[in-house]
Write a structure and sequence with these properties.
This protein has twelve helices and 14 strands. With about 350 residues, the chain is an alpha/beta fold. The protein folds into two domains: about 230 residues, Aldolase class I (TIM Barrel, Alpha-Beta Barrel); about 100 residues, no CATH class. The strands form three sheets. An eight-stranded parallel sheet has the order 1-9-8-6-5-4-3-2. Strands 7-11-10 form a three-stranded antiparallel sheet, with no helix packed on it. A three-stranded antiparallel sheet has the order 13-12-14, with no helix packed on it. Helix 2 packs parallel to helix 3, helix 3 runs parallel beside helix 4 and helix 6 runs parallel beside helix 7.
C-alpha cells in the first residue's frame, strides 16, 4: 500500500480514505470542502435540510473545492410505520434531486438503497450505504451499491449496529467482497484507522472526531464537551432522545436529561421527567426556526438558544481520542500521519 491509498481512493479520486460523517445540517459546505481539500472525502449533510437548501449547499461546496465530495441522507422514513405519504414523497424527491445534481457520491443510512441505485448510476453518482450488520451489508451488495460503510456499536448519533466494529468489520469485508467496505464507530485516531485497514477496510467514516472541528456548524459548548469527555461518559439507549424518531437507538454524552431520567428509574417515553417541556429554540441557517421539546433529536447548532444541558450531544466511544478543536484539514493531516506511522510500525 502506497501510504494510505486504497482502491476506494482511486475509485473516488481522493488521496486518503477518510470521510467525515454527514451529520445533518451541522456537516455544512465548509466542513465537506475542508475535508476534501485536505485529500479526504468530504460529506455534506442533507438529512432534515430542505430540498432547495440542499441544492444550494451542494453548489456552495463546489465553489469551495474542486475535489470529490459526497452527500449524506437518512432514508429511514421511507420504511418507518406511521410516516405520512407526503413526507415519504418529499424524502424521495430530495434524494432524486441530489442524484440528478450529479454529486460524486451519495451516502444513505438506515434504509434500503435499492430503489435509487440504477438512477444514481445513470447520473454517474456512486452509492454508499451505512449498515449495521453483515446481513444488511449482503443485501446492499446485492442491490449494486458501490461501497458499504459498516457501523459498529461504539458509534455516536443514531446507531443501527449491535456488535463492535472490530467484530463485524472483518465479517462484512469477507461477505461482500469485492465491494469496498469502510469502517465507522469508535475510531478517532490514526491507530484506529490503521487497525481498520489491516482488517480489510478500504476506508473510514468518522463522526465524533469531526464534530470537534472548527468548520462543523455546531455550538461551541457541544464541541468543548466532546473534548472533555471519555468513552464512559457516553450512553446508549433507544428511549432517551427519541423525539422525531421513536425506537431508534442512539449514543450521546450524558447530561442533565440523562441524569434526571436515570434518577427517575429510566421510565419509558410518555413517563419521563419534564416530557414536553420546551428547552429552547433552534434557528436554522436557512432562516427557519422551531421550538425544541425535551427528549427531541436534533443537532445543537450555533444559533440554538436554550439550556444546552437538556439537548442531545451525539458522540461515540472515540471521544477519549479527541483532545482539541481544530480545523478539519488539520484533523485529516493528523489522522493520516498517525495512521501511516501505525501501519509502518506494524510492518
Amino acid at each position: 500500500m502506497a501510504g494510505l491509498q486504497t482502491p476506494l481512493c482511486r475509485a473516488l479520486g481522493i488521496d486518503y480514505p477518510i470521510l467525515n460523517v454527514g451529520f445533518a445540517e451541522s456537516a455544512g459546505p465548509e466542513l465537506a470542502a475542508a475535508v476534501s481539500n485536505a485529500g479526504g472525502g468530504g460529506v455534506l449533510g442533507a438529512s432534515g435540510v430542505p430540498a432547495h437548501e440542499t441544492l444550494r449547499r451542494i453548489e456552495r461546496v463546489r465553489k469551495l473545492t474542486d475535489r470529490p465530495f459526497g452527500v449524506n441522507i437518512i432514508i429511514a422514513s421511507l420504511e418507518r410505520p406511521g410516516v405520512s405519504e407526503e413526507w415519504r414523497a418529499e424524502v424521495r424527491a430530495r434524494v432524486v434531486g441530489i442524484i440528478q445534481d450529479g454529486v460524486p457520491f451519495i451516502v444513505f443510512f438506515w434504509g434500503d438503497p435499492a430503489p435509487f441505485v440504477e438512477e444514481a448510476h445513470r447520473y454517474g453518482v456512486k452509492v454508499f450505504i451505512q449498515v449495521g450488520s453483515v446481513e444488511e451489508a449482503k443485501s446492499a451488495a446485492a442491490a449494486g451499491v458501490d461501497a458499504i460503510i459498516t457501523q459498529g456499536f461504539e458509534a455516536g448519533g443514531h446507531v443501527k449496529a449491535k456488535e463492535s466494529i472490530w467484530e463485524v468489520l472483518p465479517e462484512a469485508v469477507k461477505a461482500v467482497a469485492p465491494v469496498p467496505v469502510l469502517a465507522s464507530g469508535g475510531i478517532g485516531n490514526g491507530a484506529g484507522i490503521a487497525r481498520a485497514l489491516r482488517l480489510g477496510a478500504q476506508g473510514v467514516s468518522l463522526g465524533t472526531r469531526f464534530v470537534a472541528c472548527e468548520e462543523a456548524y455546531i455550538h461551541q459548548a457541544y464541541k468543548d464537551r466532546v473534548v472533555r469527555s471519555r468513552a464512559e461518559d457516553t450512553f446508549y439507549s433507544a428511549d432517551l432522545f427519541d423525539g422525531g424518531w421513536p425506537g431508534a437507538p442512539h449514543r450521546v454524552i450524558k447530561n442533565k436529561t440523562f441524569e434526571e431520567w436515570d434518577a427517575a428509574g429510566r421510565p419509558p417515553p410518555g413517563s419521563r421527567p419534564g416530557e414536553g417541556t420546551i428547552i429552547g429554540t433552534l434557528r436554522y441557517p436557512w432562516g427557519e426556526e422551531e421550538e425544541w421539546p425535551r427528549y427531541a433529536a436534533g443537532m445543537i447548532v450555533p444559533d440554538f438558544e436554550g439550556d444546552l444541558e437538556y439537548a442531545p450531544m451525539w458522540a461515540g466511544e472515540s471521544v477519549g481520542d479527541v483532545k482539541d478543536v481544530k480545523p478539519a484539514g488539520e484533523v485529516v493531516r493528523d489522522l493520516v500521519r498517525e495512521a501511516e506511522a501505525a501501519l509502518a510500525f506494524s510492518g
